[in-house]
Amino acid sequence: MVESLLSQLQQLKNQFDENLFLEFSKGFVDALNKGIIRAAEPSGSSSWLVNEWVKEGILLLFKYSRLYEFSNNLFSFIDKELLPVRQFSLGDRVRIVPGGTAVRSGAYIASDVIIMPPSYVNIGAYVDSGTLLDSHSLVGSCAQIGKRVHLSAGSQIGGVLEPVGARPVIVEDDVFIGGNCGIYEGVLVRRSAVIAAGVILTSSTKVYDLVNEKVYRAKNGLPLEIPENAVVVPGSKQIDSEFARLNGLSLYVPIIVKYRDERTDAKSTLEMALR
Asked: Model's pTM, two decimal places?
């Protein structure tokens, strides 16, 4: 199936054909919904492979799919015809609590995921089993969320479609993300890390590790990477200028204050009895 979709995409990039596009879009969106294809996938024990062609296919859907009115008596809803809100059935084993949540078609939601209202999951996103998306959370285009992740209320996982070569945000298994966090621009959060409430991570952020006395940053084409089991909290760094000293100014910086232990687990582990 993947080989067929790749072949169809290449043909459409060379010359658009409406019938071929409709055939491609049906198979492509279905493969995204089922998790058969994804914008990034594990490669080996610790690496990730970014599938640029998947993002190319999503951009093709936006380019050639016409606007369509999906409105009903309750809502005014106009979007691309081939990208409606995704529908779920009991057999999907996804719990979506009512109250304004939307999952766009082309997003993979694994079994035993819980989505609290209101939340939004965009096309190309991948949310693995046992994960909790709490109220007012966002999983952006092509973001990859692992198993048993806790995405707390008000947190945002940024999306990416353009440029095609840009990395999506990747959050590995068993990560805890506190309330009102923002993770953007291809940041990689490794397994079992804890991101405390209010932490913002981008490709230009420097993260200071007090335990190992290191500074983590994106460089040489590699993303900012939060180490496995790291506990990251909001901190500050003094600005070294006369004006800053006179006015007591400092900059926000994320700080790794410890690595996960039993005490951290007691505060951040998902309650599996709820599942």
From this structure: 0.93
